[in-house]
Amino acid sequence: MNLILFGPPGAGKGTQAKRLVEQRGMVQLSTGDMLRAAIASGSELGQKVKGVLDRGDLVTDEIVIALIEERLPEAEAAGGAIFDGFPRTVAQAQALDVMLAKRGQKIDSVVRLEVDEPALIERITKRYAEQGRSDDNPETFVNRLARYNADTAPLLPYYREQGKLVEVDGMGAVEAVAASIDATLTVVA
């Protein structure tokens, strides 16, 4: 099963993906984690990515798609992938569909975590204070949220038209959100 967890930065996609990895053995393909690993490596690409993220901008499609494609064999061997933070645009979604189709795969479900934006900003401010992630800086986060809303809004009808979009309240307790996601995946499986 290939699943997309969809929602703005800080909505809890990473938390829910990690839980699904533990319970279902799937591979989490988190573009955020992949990009942070590139930064930590100190490579030229990592330095370029750091500059982009520190400004609150998004990295290019080419970089993100290459990172995803590199990890697909691992996901296939595990029985599926959880896409976390990807795709962000219709162009990325179309590229993902083509990549998967070439491998005899497809996206089975898209779970959208619906959140209240003011509460989300509070959540990120707290996470920044606790973890100090540069991409969680409250000022850059507001830019990331605006970019998310502008760039990813077209994904909703894209996946809704395919009959793959399921919406879940992402503002509840982690366990309540998890139960809602599990209920939607039972229907898909």
Summarize the structure.
Residues 30-59 are annotated as: NMP. Its main location: cytoplasm. The chain has 189 residues and is α/β, with parallel strands linked by helices.
Description of the molecule:
The chain is α/β, with parallel strands linked by helices and 189 residues long. It has a single domain (3-171), classed as 3-Layer(aba) Sandwich (Rossmann fold). The chain contains 9 helices and 5 strands, in the order βαβαααβαβαααβα. A 5-stranded parallel beta sheet has the order 2-3-1-4-5. Helix 2 (31-41) crosses helix 3 (44-54) and helix 4 (61-78) runs parallel beside helix 5. The mean pLDDT is 89. Monomer. InterPro entries: Adenylat/UMP-CMP_kin, Adenylat_kinase_CS, P-loop_NTPase. ATP binds at residues 10-15, 127, 172. One of its GO terms (biological process) is AMP salvage.
Topology:
Elements: E1 3-6, H1 13-24, E2 27-30, H2 31-41, H3 44-54, H4 61-78, E3 81-84, H5 90-102, E4 109-114, H6 117-131, H7 138-152, H8 155-161, E5 165-169, H9 174-188
Parallel strand pairs: 1-3, 1-4, 2-3, 4-5
Question: What labels describe this entry?
Answer:
single chain; 189 residues; alpha/beta; Rossmann fold; 5-stranded parallel beta sheet; 9 helices; 62% helix; globular
